[in-house]
């Protein structure tokens, strides 16, 4: 953290994030990690980050809605920093434990994060298929940090199929749809990021949008109620 803050000391438009990943365990009852223990662990990391001088918290590579909830609650209980969160979906738009893009986005917004999005697992081409669902499910600014395509094995080594120039073109197409923060994950190099910045830097930031839907989310599913008020229960005289 000290090294990152020093590197950004003379740049007022640069911010340093405390980066927090998943625990690596499934929460009870699907695994052996109690929810309260997960909340406490994430909270300690958030507290350390704030004490070290972080400007914000980035929770990334999350694949379980229950753990996402634990991470957000822990960070909010032990830190006053803004929280951004990115999640890892498969090509069908599902988290490891089955949650959908809409369910995850709706829950994150309800819990008060500053931005939400995608990272790891899939490349820009796959994110392009899932991005419309997230844009339609939340008013939050959207983050995209995909891999440099899907990994392939060549000569016994794992390689990524999308080079810097193609990555920049694909990210430009995604950014045009209203993305606020763009970066990269596995397989991306400094050249990928430089090429992307050169391509997208003139685009306007997506920022906040007005989501016209009312969405109720469970552990794995989101239900759209529409924009109008819903009357629940009987009239009491």
UniProtKB/TrEMBL annotation:
<protein>
    <submittedName>
        <fullName>5-methyltetrahydrofolate--homocysteine methyltransferase</fullName>
    </submittedName>
</protein>
<dbReference type="Pfam" id="PF02574">
    <property type="entry name" value="S-methyl_trans"/>
</dbReference>
<dbReference type="GO" id="GO:0032259">
    <property type="term" value="P:methylation"/>
</dbReference>
<keyword id="KW-0489">Methyltransferase</keyword>
<keyword id="KW-0479">Metal-binding</keyword>
<keyword id="KW-0949">S-adenosyl-L-methionine</keyword>
<dbReference type="InterPro" id="IPR003726">
    <property type="entry name" value="HCY_dom"/>
</dbReference>
<dbReference type="InterPro" id="IPR036589">
    <property type="entry name" value="HCY_dom_sf"/>
</dbReference>
<keyword id="KW-0808">Transferase</keyword>
<dbReference type="GO" id="GO:0005829">
    <property type="term" value="C:cytosol"/>
</dbReference>
<feature type="domain" description="Hcy-binding">
    <location>
        <begin position="1"/>
        <end position="200"/>
    </location>
</feature>
<comment type="similarity">
    <text>Belongs to the vitamin-B12 dependent methionine synthase family.</text>
</comment>
<dbReference type="GO" id="GO:0050667">
    <property type="term" value="P:homocysteine metabolic process"/>
</dbReference>
<keyword id="KW-0170">Cobalt</keyword>
<dbReference type="InterPro" id="IPR050554">
    <property type="entry name" value="Met_Synthase/Corrinoid"/>
</dbReference>
<dbReference type="GO" id="GO:0008705">
    <property type="term" value="F:methionine synthase activity"/>
</dbReference>
<dbReference type="GO" id="GO:0046653">
    <property type="term" value="P:tetrahydrofolate metabolic process"/>
</dbReference>
<dbReference type="GO" id="GO:0046872">
    <property type="term" value="F:metal ion binding"/>
</dbReference>
